[in-house]
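thought: user wants a sequence for this fold. calling inverse folding tool.
action: design(structure=
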């Protein structure tokens, strides 16, 4: 099988997960990378024994590159995705897809116009625990859904923000505890519980010297009538594993990071492929404490989507959803009023 060529734009921390995933996937090969910081691009290319392109334009002109991974600060996702779509490249963009709904829509338009595919990284959707929980919900094992909550109480030091140069700013991060760290949990919550009808949010910057929120709390109503809570912070020491709770009138399933902490369904034994326990590995206090499997699954999904001309599992319309919820929470916090999401 001919390997599909990938290029990486932005050679910082998360680019390593993309390069590792691409090099581990059979149908993929890394053609090269580019960064505005030429030295960073060169060092990255050396590490992965690939080509360092001098400019983003040169990378986008390369005919061997069919899929581009965008791993830059979040505020640059939209302009770069629009540019990559214009160059006819399929796109894998890091979360958040973009930092405003307007920018998400610009990306959607560019992909439609240029007939290219786009996948947004939301690696938790591919984990065993989330897939099993989704199956239980779809097959109505939990009965009528009553509540769906996610708690993301993390620790990021002042130094983490100071040395980044872009994290914690509205322009490049688009938000804080929710738009950056918490979006994973927000995405799986809406993926599992279904569309959100309204949010009532309150966000504050309590301890960090940043423009965006370091602490957020929101109440949600889902379209199916269930209620929910989103809590996110990057200001608590030492941080706790992410906890996601789904309750119905016939059962409860609780995830702690990727582990299933509780699986109880009325009148049923725990299925054999479900192991309950608590989690050890967590990004609660260390953003780099995560495996490469999730990114690998998304690279495999994208290679397959391009080969068989189908939609990637988390396409641009899916990637827009958590951004819509988070920006609605910000708006609600600003206005003091509930925000109804558009259908
Ligand atoms: N999926 C996940 O779990 C996960 C984890 C961490 C970060 N992320 C996301 O990945 C993205 C990058 O985060 P990071 O922590 O790797 O940031 P980083 O600061 O470590 O790296 C960003 C890189 O982009 C480069 N860059 C800046 N402007 C550029 C431009 N115009 N063109 C090309 N390169 C440019 C910088 O020089 C830097 O090397 C963010 O959107 C973040 O939300 C996702």
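)
observation: tool returned 343 residues.
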């Amino acid at each position: 099988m001919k390997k599909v060529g990938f290029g990486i734009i932005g050679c910082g921390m998360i680019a390593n997960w993309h390069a590792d995933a691409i090099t581990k996937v059979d149908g993929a090969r890394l053609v090269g990378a580019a960064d505005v910081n030429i030295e960073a691009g060169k060092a990255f290319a050396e590490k992965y024994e690939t080509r360092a392109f001098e400019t983003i334009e040169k990378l986008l002109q390369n005919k061997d590159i069919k899929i581009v991974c965008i791993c830059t600060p979040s505020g640059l996702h939209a302009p770069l995705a629009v540019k990559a779509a214009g160059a006819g490249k399929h796109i894998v963009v890091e979360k958040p897809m973009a930092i405003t709904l307007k920018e998400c829509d610009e990306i959607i338009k560019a992909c439609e116009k240029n007939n290219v595919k786009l996948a947004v990284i939301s690696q938790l959707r591919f984990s065993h625990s989330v897939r099993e929980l989704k199956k239980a919900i779809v097959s109505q094992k939990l009965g009528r859904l009553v509540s769906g909550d996610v708690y993301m109480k993390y620790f990021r030091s002042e130094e983490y923000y100071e040395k980044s140069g872009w994290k914690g700013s509205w322009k490049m991060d688009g938000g804080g505890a929710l738009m950056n760290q918490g979006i994973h949990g927000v995405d799986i919550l809406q993926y599992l519980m279904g569309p959100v009808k309204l949010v009532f949010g309150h966000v504050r910057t309590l301890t960090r010297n940043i423009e965006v929120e370091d602490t957020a709390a929101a109440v949600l109503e889902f379209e199916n009538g269930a209620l929910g809570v989103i809590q996110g912070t990057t200001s608590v020491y030492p941080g706790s594993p992410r906890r996601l709770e789904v309750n119905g009138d016939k059962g409860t399933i609780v995830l702690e990071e990727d582990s299933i902490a509780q699986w109880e369904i009325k009148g049923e034994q725990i299925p054999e492929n479900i192991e309950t326990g608590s989690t050890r590995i967590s990004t609660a206090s260390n953003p780099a404490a995560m495996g490469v499997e999730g990114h690998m699954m998304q690279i495999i999904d994208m290679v397959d989507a391009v080969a068989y001309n189908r939609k990637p599992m988390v396409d641009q319309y899916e990637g827009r959803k958590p951004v819509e919820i988070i920006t609605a929470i910000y708006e609600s916090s600003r206005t003091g009023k509930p925000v109804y999401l558009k259908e």
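thought: summarizing for user.
answer: Here is the designed sequence. The two ends are 42 Å apart (CA to CA).
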